[in-house]
Specification:
The complex is a heterodimer. Chain A is α/β, with parallel strands linked by helices. Chain A has one domain: 3-Layer(aba) Sandwich (Rossmann fold), CATH 3.40.50. Helices cover 30% and strands 21% of the residues of chain A. In chain A, helix 3 packs parallel to helix 4 and helix 4 packs parallel to helix 5. The model of chain A has no long low-confidence stretch (mean pLDDT 93). Helix content of chain B is 44%, strand content 19%. Chain B is built from 11 helices and 10 strands. In chain B, the strands form 2 sheets. Chain B has a 7-stranded mixed β-sheet. A 3-stranded antiparallel β-sheet of chain B has the order 3-5-4. Chain B is globular. The model of chain B has no long low-confidence stretch (mean pLDDT 95). Classes of the chains: A alpha/beta, B alpha/beta. Chains A and B meet through strand 6 and helix 3 of A and helix 2 of B.
């Protein structure tokens, strides 16, 4: 389908409970030479040994790294929000971190990433909501759609924790509701 | 799409008005974050546009004070990031403890919890009495709270855990008096702390410092303002001089990367490079 090849530049992904496995499935499906930027907020605990980053790097063609304050967003790189910091997208396509209080009990907040990405990239964002046991991300996904971006939501039936995708479908609506494996394949074709 | 560009223009003008009318300069703050604060305030006022709010800002001092408070970041706790305090004990204290007098600048001290944490640490290391701590912030409300040193007791459990993890040598309970649901920090911790109003965007150096602690402040600044602040710190630091940033902050993307040498990369502790020594 041709419309997929429009001009998406970044993919933002929000995931909570069950995120590790879900991200592995998706990221491993991205083809060699994948040239979109991927920015991920996963609600996770502090990981002193960078295990998460190292592990994901072995599974995907993307270069996965923890997002750093004020760095430029580059194609082919997957940025993961550091635990305990919000991750925001600036209008000049750089990243900022913040230690503002948690939003909906979450820091990093999926909503904060999604809303700022929507304003900075407008129709060039694809927002992805995966498994999770809260309602973070639905407000941000709604904003992505409002500015012409695309919303992809994991089929709640296939999610380890269905609440987050269910809420996102209810509040933001979806352009595509897919299983994890299909989300990976689908995103792979956006490049 | 036009409306994002228009809104950004309104935000530019709002920050310009804040600067021109009141002298507080947020124009070089990280924009995404400041924009969220402005939009949050807009919702609370019930006004329709940021331009309408700008009119209010210019004509209403009380509203300016509300916005100033919105822009101030006051997230803090005692011994926040305990491993950082441990690194100070192990890597900075041995290098400064023989100085006749020690000057420490805590820039962006918010409500003071981290200042008192340093004071406790210095006391335990036996060097508090010869140390002066300059604790600064642009927000006068939080400075007042910092001066009082009164904190809700409900966080104590976490603070005690942090204290232990930070290498605390005694008992944290020795450093405060508990009253109802509050704790009052011990006056012996306060005597060498000078809390004062200082704005990193426009104020200058006020003395030679041995250690500067500025954590989770510059992530709210754009690169330009970060450069300005690093220059300020460089001018303020003596030799040897140490700079401590937040765990996700770095000098490595600034113009001054060659002026600081990381002595603990993980805890973001830097030593000023002594340019005279290089010659």
């Amino acid at each position: 389908m041709n419309f997929l090849k429009t001009d998406h530049e970044i993919i933002v992904i929000g995931v909570s409970t069950g995120g590790f496995k879900a991200l592995e499935v998706i990221l491993s499906k991205l083809p060699e030479g994948f040239n979109l930027s991927v920015i991920i907020v996963q609600h996770r605990k502090k990981d002193p040994d960078d295990f998460f980053i190292d592990y994901m790097n072995k599974k995907t063609s993307l270069h996965i790294k923890e997002a750093e304050d004020k760095e430029s967003i580059k194609p082919g790189v997957g940025y993961i929000a550091p635990p305990e910091y919000h991750l925001l997208v600036e209008m000049d396509h750089t990243l900022s971190l913040s230690v503002d209080p948690p939003l909906k009990y979450a820091r990093p907040s999926i909503d904060m990433l999604f809303e700022t990405a929507a304003e900075a990239y407008e129709s060039k964002v694809a927002g992805v909501i995966l498994t999770g046991a809260n309602d973070d991300g639905s407000k941000g996904l709604k904003k992505i759609r409002k500015y012409g971006g695309m919303a992809i939501i994991q089929d709640p039936v296939t999610a380890e924790a269905p609440m987050m995708p269910k809420n996102a479908i209810k509040i933001a609506g979806a352009d595509h509701i897919l299983s994890l494996a299909n989300i990976g394949k689908f995103l792979g074709r956006l490049s | 799409m036009g409306d994002i560009a228009n809104r950004n223009l309104e935000i530019d003008l709002f920050l310009e008005a804040m600067y021109k009318k009141y002298g507080y300069d947020f124009r070089n703050y990280s924009r995404a974050s400041i924009k969220r604060r402005i939009e949050h305030r807009l919702k609370l006022t019930g006004l329709k546009t940021i331009s309408a709010m700008q009119h209010e800002l210019i004509n209403n001092w009380n509203f300016f004070e509300i916005v100033l408070r919105d822009f101030s970041i006051n997230v803090t706790e005692m011994f926040r990031d305990p491993s950082f305090y441990k690194a100070i004990r192990e890597e900075i204290i041995p290098k400064i403890k023989d100085f006749q007098q020690i000057n420490i600048w805590h820039a962006g001290c918010a409500t003071g919890e981290e200042v008192y944490s340093i004071a406790v640490l210095l006391k335990e290391e036996g060097i508090y009495d010869k140390t002066r701590i300059y604790a600064t912030d642009f927000n006068k409300d939080v400075l007042e709270k910092a001066k009082q040193g009164v904190y809700p007791a409900k966080f104590l459990k976490q603070y005690i855990l942090n204290y232990r993890e930070a290498g605390g040598m005694g008992s944290f309970t020795d450093y405060y008096t508990a009253k109802y649901e509050f704790v009052l920090m011990d006056s012996s911790l306060k005597k060498n702390i000078l809390f004062s109003d200082h704005n990193l965007t426009c104020d200058t150096v006020f003395g030679e410092m041995d250690v500067i602690i500025c954590r989770n402040v510059i992530i709210y600044f754009n690169i330009e303002l970060q450069n300005h602040v690093f220059k300020l710190f460089l001018d303020a630091l003596g030799n040897p001089g140490f700079l401590c940033l937040g765990s996700k902050e770095t000098v490595s993307i600034s113009d001054y990367v060659d002026n600081f040498e990381a002595i603990n990369r993980k805890e973001k502790i830097y030593k000023k490079v002594d340019k005279r020594a290089v010659l």
